Description:
Blueprint: E1 3-7, H1 13-26, H2 37-46, E2 53-59, E3 62-72, E4 81-89, H3 98-112, E5 117-119, H4 127-136
Amino acid sequence: MNITIRKAIESDSGGIWKLMKELAIFEKYIDSFAITPEIVRERGFKKNPPDFSCLVADDNQKIAGILVYYYLPFTAQNKPAIFIKELYVDTTYRGHKIGEKLMLALKEEAVINNCEQIKWTVAPWNEGGIRFYNKLGAKENNDWLNYEWNLDH
């Protein structure tokens, strides 16, 4: 196994989508999952500016893990922040610190871009994810409640 962490490129779209779909199954929202490889390609690589950025764990041109994120350019601290939308490692690659390598690469990206914070959410039932984030030194933030406003079209 020869894992390289790098920024995703357009030709990674299919592999990114595959892991997005696996995450949707894991997190139990596959019934509402509306992403296609074409959407990943268009929204992440052809649109300017893109809707998201992505780091990948590459094992000889096979995508072993993804970290999808976007910037929050304006914060009260007058510094950008990064919001992680998806972090997922293919089940066959788990136990090799790929998630940690992706997170550390994102931390480097945040420092380069003068970000104040990296933020994300985790499902309360995802005990493995919670242990992983705690091990990294991340802290749970209970200062705010998450709200959603689902719009009928």
